[in-house]
Batch of 2 targets.
Target 1
Amino acid sequence: MPSEDLLRVFQGLVSLDCIAWRVGMAHAARLICSRCAAGDPHHTNALRSIGGSEGRHPVYDLHVAEGGGLAECWAGPIWKELEKGEH
Ligand SMILES: [Zn+2]
């Protein structure tokens, strides 16, 4: 097999591995956090006036709870890792 084809196969395997990692991480988050399992949305922070111009951004440590309150997300670190997009 020409080396270019081998490289393409290898790149395919790497991206597959990355997808598997993402699926596994998301699955783990739903196992850890009952609110993630229920599909509850994460809180978003619209007012980052101190931090700069990042705009509206998910706060992965917090879920929007019943009645508009906030509840802790036990899988916050996992979602932060996923957001980085690399492993
Ligand atoms: Zn959660």
Target 2
Amino acid sequence: MESRYPSESRTILTDLVLPGETNPLNNLFGGELLARMDRAAGIAAGRHSRRIVVTASVNHVAFSKAIPLGSVVTVEAKVSRAFKSSMEVVIDVWIEDRQTGDKTKANEAIYTFVAVNESGSPVSVPPIKPETELEQQRYDAALRRKQLSLVLAGKMKPNDATELKALFV
Ligand SMILES: CC(C)(COP(=O)(O)OP(=O)(O)OC[C@H]1O[C@@H](n2cnc3c(N)ncnc32)[C@H](O)[C@@H]1OP(=O)(O)O)[C@@H](O)C(=O)NCCC(=O)NCCS
């Protein structure tokens, strides 16, 4: 299978924060942001694999900054690494200042998607070739994160997580 670049999967969703999407402090409800990130990441994984994709796990979410009512929110998702049937997708969330247009990073997350056939069984995806320094860093760290996620899910024995163990020895 021919490899693809992370930029080919880049997906950007821009939307407002409306009153029905906020918590009692008038900030964006966390579940709404998770849904927006899942949607953007799913499109990115689909662009990379050109297959049906399902969310296999949410590996990391950092709600670093509250996002106030009325904000213009941009969710940017890109596949950082492709394995056999799974893909790691990194999501960056930005808030746009409506007057200056300046963007501030608000949150980030890492999701894992799996490409499946019509019966829901995993199928192979194309490899990925990082181009930029940041893409290379994210690619290099993705195997550790995959192993951590599998260990936490009880799908890998800690002893087999060689890449992860290498961090500590
Ligand atoms: C995701 C799913 C397809 C995995 O199926 P499975 O039978 O466990 O398949 P496998 O064990 O062969 O795993 C398939 C791939 O997923 C990866 N994977 C599975 N669970 C994972 C986890 N918790 N974290 C990271 N990767 C995971 C495996 O490592 C494997 O990757 P690889 O092929 O690139 O090496 C299956 O669990 C599923 O359909 N889940 C429901 C998905 C869904 O409905 N999501 C929406 C939320 S409601």
